[in-house]
Design goal:
single chain; alpha+beta; Aminopeptidase; globular; N-acetyltransferase; acyltransferase activity, transferring groups other than amino-acyl groups; Trichothecene_AcTrans
Length: 219
């Protein structure tokens, strides 16, 4: 069955959802070029990803907007970025070292690059969109996107995200995003696409993909 964007299955996530949604995030992102670059060993990756996405989900619940489905098989984590967000670099570095262990250098580098290239224009940032692998290709991710896009359009706000593979890139293009300059990860790492969905009132304006900012985290 195909889930349509009019299906009323999207709701705010609650603390009771955190266990299932951590699993959804860890499994949905377990495979792919970015995952293989971050942690080559798939068994190690599953263990570290569970810790990493547990932290990501709890951070989203505290500081962002987290939405899920009635059956807890999908999750979207959004952050309102109406002004540049300050970063406690030492605290984040310590957290990544604690969470990812020997793999911390690549996780730190990835977050540094995402931070350095992040637009300053007010927007909402889609940090993660995940669907349980057994429920993919049914339009559930598209439903989560459309639900939040309607709210953004009501307030005239754009959206920004990073796509880590061609499949996701095609999904976001279908939902009104424009692909900007890429981020090339070092040591044979994958390409990351920076993607922007303009506000509905925007016509012909320049897409705000910045050059790297000097204010970055330090290794």
């Amino acid at each position: 069955m195909t889930v349509t964007n009019n299906n009323p299955l999207v709701r705010p996530a609650t603390e009771a959802d955190t266990g299932p949604l951590i699993g959804v995030l860890a499994e949905a992102f377990h495979d792919g070029p970015l995952a293989e670059w971050l942690i080559p060993d798939p068994d190690e990756r599953r263990t570290v990803y569970y810790r990493y996405f547990r932290d990501a989900l709890h951070h989203g619940m505290t500081h962002g907007q987290v939405h899920t489905t009635a059956d807890q098989t999908a999750v979207a984590i959004w952050y309102p970025r109406l002004e540049p967000a300050p970063t406690d670099t030492r605290e984040r570095l310590a957290a990544l070292e604690r969470i990812t262990g020997v793999y911390a250098p690549k996780f730190v580098l990835l977050e540094e690059l995402f931070d350095a290239f992040h637009p300053d224009t007010p927007h909402h940032y889609l940090a993660y969109l995940a669907v349980d692998p057994s429920r993919q290709n049914r339009g559930i991710g598209a439903t989560l996107l459309a639900d939040h896009h309607r709210r953004l359009d009501d307030f005239g706000l754009p959206a920004y995200l990073e796509a880590s593979n061609m499949r996701n890139r095609r999904l976001y293009l279908r939902h009104g995003y424009t692909a900007g300059p890429t981020i090339a990860l070092p040591t044979d790492g994958p390409i990351i696409w920076r993607m922007w969905r303009g506000a509905p009132t925007t016509s012909g304006g320049r897409t705000p993909f910045p050059h790297p900012r000097p204010r970055r985290r330090s290794l």
